[in-house]
């Protein structure tokens, strides 16, 4: 498997894990300054014969001890994976910068109110502007549409003033 650990770190797993057999190799070539390499770990239920190995690959023959089933395996270091990982890290940093800029953008466009009285006053002004009485247009047509749809009891309820508690409950 490809790992971000150097071979010395991988070898320490022998003492903490259940893997009695470990091979670790550091990467070679492009990107070697980056941490990591190849590692192969197995327990005593498997026999592994190393056929060939280098800093960038490991060819092996793997045999299950209980069934004698055999197959071959190759682990190789892939510069593409490292480049993708580096690109993902770069994009993550770019995203972090964009999120900071977005936060600044929003903070510059609004005032943060924390005091309940300030919030109440802002909301009151907003709704007063939204629902101010203006010149009525097409009153007859509007009345024809709603006639008979609102009874007197409902009309009385709709015309009641909102209490402070109702407004606060609606905003929560």
Explain what the structure shows:
With 172 residues, this protein is α+β, with helices and mostly antiparallel strands. It folds into 3 domains: 2-77, no CATH class; 78-110; 116-171, no CATH class. 45% of the residues lie in helices and 22% in strands. The protein has 7 helices and 6 strands; from the N terminus they run E-H-H-E-E-E-E-E-H-H-H-H-H. Strands 1-3-2 form a 3-stranded antiparallel beta sheet. A hairpin with a 5-residue loop joins strand 5 and strand 6 (70-76). The two termini are 52 Å apart. The mean pLDDT is 77.
* Uncertain segments: none
- The number of helical segments is 7
Specify the biggest β-sheet. Answer: 3 strands, antiparallel
Average pLDDT, all residues: 77
End-to-end CA span: 52 Å
Question: What is the H/E order?
Answer: EHHEEEEEHHHHH
- Tell me the number of structural domains: 3
Shape: elongated
SS content category: alpha+beta
Rg from alpha-carbon coordinates: 35 Å
| Number of separate strands | 6
- Tell me roughly what share of residues is in helical segments: 40-55%
β-sheet strand percentage: 15-25%
Strand order of the largest sheet: 1-3-2
Keywords:
22% strand; alpha+beta; 7 helices; three-stranded antiparallel sheet; elongated
Please specify the SSE layout and strand pairing.
Elements: E1 2-3, H1 7-11, H2 13-16, E2 21-26, E3 37-42, E4 46-53, E5 57-64, E6 70-76, H3 79-108, H4 116-130, H5 139-146, H6 152-158, H7 164-171
Antiparallel strand pairs: 1-3, 2-3, 4-5, 5-6
